[in-house]
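Field log, afternoon session.

UNIT: design team B
ACTIVITY: writing a sequence onto a fixed backbone
BACKBONE:
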């Protein structure tokens, strides 16, 4: 029997060989796929330069002098990046714990997470690291629906870009970039905007539970929307807090406590038409548009103020701006209520217009219709004039301004023509506050509400200045004729003859009350009480040309007519120019042009613009101080006395007719009230040594005004805003608003101490009462 053949054992070498061949092919294939991806075979890949400078649209930020963001200019992306050091640790912890627990241990791709995702087909979490998510946001984009093949190619591109990001940036920089790029909804682009819009604070101020809300939104900000789906967001927030406890960023006790808290959302959407300093921000936008035209980039391309992330450093102090807006709202709300009370249909059938014919009112209304946005829009659509006019008589739903609602808005139904008349009823205002030594504008209020009244009365508007122009006449007289505040002139009817100073007929101004005392008044008393006869004598003595020359040198424009009537403020001026001019008096005779923007930086911090002060010596220190002394008389015993808590003679508490407040300001204040014909314009210019503020109040048309001086004078319409504003400023000592006296020149050559005049005239006057009245005490 043949011997059975013995079987040779099977060799595993071929299997091992093929295993390594296939493994090698797999590795080479994967490497080839990644190499192809890096070459752009699956779609364009970012260049090295692009990685170093990712293209993200950045909003231009307008920054106050105290470091607060006043607002932003942007189109679609309201994004202002922050550095990693500005992110609170609790936000970083929440992000890592929730999105990428091994973030600080991998190089862009989490191998464990990737294997787990493949093994469980994504059911136990995805494999995207923070670096990959950033790669997708920056360079690839997020697609909701795509094929499996495309999804795989996108994932490969993410891996490649993520590893490149890890080589080019630190872990901290990647986190900052990711938080800056994410869209949190409601124009909350990036963590800075999100923190401000959802919680009304800067990122560094976020508490742990607030950071958890924002990190929770990273999963899907459209779905996890704290405004539309608060319960879902609350649950997601608690999940984030649970992750933080899981990875020992917070204790279990802290987690339990924080999960019981409400979200406490402080929704503050950032709009061009809402927020702080809206009128100023729109002025800054117009200023920037001019600046970018004249200052291109090194390559000749123009800066884009909506996309290039410029930083605009301004002189506005956010605290003083807030005080100014609050003071305006507080007074204008009360003043408007009184205006409505006096202009009911029963009391004034032509309301809100006074002393004009129905034909004149129709002309005003037709003009307003043609200037309206509705007219312009329908004209662009090719509508005929008849069609446009007809639309103004059709009732429609609209939201209009209303002082009595919490949001200052109400929904109503009215015709567009009725809405024009409705808006004509509202008094307008303007206010600007400036540091005279530097020209830095600290507060800017262009109207009562930018959303509904977009005309900026600070810089765009100009109205008759009334008696606030008189100080320029007095300054010319003191400068050229060496008058002093203690010199006196008679209060008699005074006429400037025809052909003198360019007059075609005699000019005989009356005092506001139509009366003349016939006695001498010191210049200090005459200015304090706005005595027109004395002002007429002064401009006759120095000539209108001299007054115009001084006014021009103090920034009041080149179109002032050289006629005597300018002495009473018949020419139109803007609040911006008037504040700049008055600053010359407070700054010892040196005019400093008002400045609002001090510096511009690009997104990298490179300085693109730095302002250079524009100054001019106009008056001597002696003349400037004498003028300040004169205007102090306005608040000591003249038309501005209501600023003081008592009258000098009557020794009783003063109640303002509009606000009801005794303002109780006792520090040295120089100022001047102004009221134009028919009470169409009310002014107050107020000064302390380091702050000059001008306020104007009036109607949209000159025929819209109070019927009597009681409510229509500058002391009632404009002065209370100044007083409330200053009281608020003084409550915050950090603002450093002066309560001290104005600085007196070392060798003052002009007599401002009128008690010496009193002594000299004692023997010539029968009684002390007569003496007081004669020389104006």
């Amino acid at each position: 029997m043949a011997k059975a053949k013995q079987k040779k054992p099977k060799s595993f070498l071929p299997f091992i060989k093929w295993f390594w061949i296939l493994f090698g092919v797999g590795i080479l294939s994967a490497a080839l796929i990644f190499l192809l991806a890096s070459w752009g075979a699956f779609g364009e890949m970012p260049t090295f330069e692009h990685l170093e400078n990712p293209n993200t649209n950045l909003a231009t930020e307008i920054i106050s002098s105290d470091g607060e963001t006043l607002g932003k200019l942007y189109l679609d992306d309201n994004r202002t990046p922050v550095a990693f050091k500005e992110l609170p640790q609790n936000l970083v912890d929440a992000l890592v714990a929730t999105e990428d627990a091994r973030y600080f241990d991998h190089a862009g791709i989490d191998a464990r997470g990737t294997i787990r995702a493949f093994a469980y087909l994504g059911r136990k979490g995805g494999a995207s690291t923070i670096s990959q998510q950033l790669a997708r946001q920056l360079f690839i984009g997020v697609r909701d629906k795509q094929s499996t093949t495309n999804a795989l190619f996108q994932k490969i591109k993410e891996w490649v870009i993520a590893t490149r990001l890890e080589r080019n940036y630190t872990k901290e920089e990647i986190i900052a970039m990711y938080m800056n790029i994410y869209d949190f909804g409601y124009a909350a682009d990036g963590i800075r905007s999100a923190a401000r819009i959802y919680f009304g604070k800067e990122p560094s101020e976020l508490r742990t539970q607030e950071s958890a809300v924002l990190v929770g939104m990273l999963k899907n900000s459209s779905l996890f929307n704290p405004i539309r789906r608060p319960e879902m967001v609350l649950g997601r927030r608690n999940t984030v807090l649970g992750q933080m406890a899981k990875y020992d960023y917070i204790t279990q006790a802290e987690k339990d406590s924080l999960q019981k808290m409400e979200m406490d959302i402080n929704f503050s959407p950032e709009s061009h038409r809402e927020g702080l300093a809206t009128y100023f921000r729109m002025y800054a936008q117009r200023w920037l548009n001019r600046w970018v035209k004249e200052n291109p980039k090194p390559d000749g391309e123009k800066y884009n103020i909506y996309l290039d992330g410029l930083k605009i450093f301004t002189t506005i102090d956010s605290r003083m701006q807030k005080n100014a807006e609050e003071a305006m709202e507080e007074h204008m709300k009360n003043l408007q209520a009184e205006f409505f009370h006096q202009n009911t249909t029963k009391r004034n059938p032509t309301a809100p217009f006074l002393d004009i014919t129905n034909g004149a009112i129709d002309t005003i209304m037709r003009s307003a219709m043609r200037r309206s946005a509705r007219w312009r829009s329908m004209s662009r659509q090719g509508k005929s004039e008849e069609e446009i006019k007809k639309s103004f008589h059709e009732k429609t739903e609209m939201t209009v301004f209303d002082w009595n609602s919490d949001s200052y808005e109400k929904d109503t139904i009215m015709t567009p023509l009725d809405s024009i008349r409705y808006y004509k009823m509202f008094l307008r205002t303007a206010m600007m506050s400036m540091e005279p030594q530097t020209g830095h504008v600290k507060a800017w209020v262009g109207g009562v509400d930018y959303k509904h009244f977009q005309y900026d009365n600070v810089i765009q508007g100009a109205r008759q200045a009334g008696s606030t122009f008189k100080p320029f006449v007095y300054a010319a007289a003191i400068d050229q004729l060496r008058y002093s505040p203690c010199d006196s002139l008679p209060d008699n009817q005074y006429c400037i003859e025809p052909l003198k100073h360019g007059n075609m007929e005699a000019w005989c101004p009356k005092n506001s009350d139509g009366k003349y005392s016939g006695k001498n008044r010191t210049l200090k008393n005459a200015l304090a009480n706005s005595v027109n006869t004395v002002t007429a004598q002064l401009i006759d003595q120095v000539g209108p040309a001299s007054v115009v020359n001084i006014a021009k040198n103090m920034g009041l424009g080149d179109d002032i007519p050289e006629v005597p009537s300018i002495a009473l403020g018949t020419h139109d001026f803007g609040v911006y120019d008037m504040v700049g001019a008055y600053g010359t008096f407070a700054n010892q005779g040196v005019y400093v042009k008002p400045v609002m923007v001090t510096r511009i930086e690009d997104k990298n911090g490179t300085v693109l613009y730095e302002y250079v002060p524009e100054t001019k010596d106009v008056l001597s220190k002696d003349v400037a101080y004498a003028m300040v002394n004169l205007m102090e008389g306005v608040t000591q015993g003249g038309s501005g006395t209501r600023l003081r808590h008592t009258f000098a003679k009557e020794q009783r508490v003063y109640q303002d007719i509009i606000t009801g407040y005794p303002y109780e300001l006792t520090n040295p204040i120089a100022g001047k009230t102004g009221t134009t014909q028919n009470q169409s314009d009310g002014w107050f210019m107020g000064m302390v040594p380091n702050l000059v503020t001008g306020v104007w109040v009036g109607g949209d048309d000159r025929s819209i005004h109070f019927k009597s001086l009681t409510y229509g004078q500058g002391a009632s319409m404009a002065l209370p805003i100044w007083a409330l504003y200053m009281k608020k400023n003084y409550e915050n000592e950090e603002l450093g608003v002066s309560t001290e006296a104005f600085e007196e020149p070392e060798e003052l050559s002009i007599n401002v101490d009128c008690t010496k005049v009193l002594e000299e005239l004692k023997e010539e006057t029968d009684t002390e009462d007569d003496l007081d009245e004669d020389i104006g005490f």
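LOG NOTE: Residues 132 and 618 are 65 Å apart (CA to CA).
NEXT ACTIVITY: expression trials, pending approval
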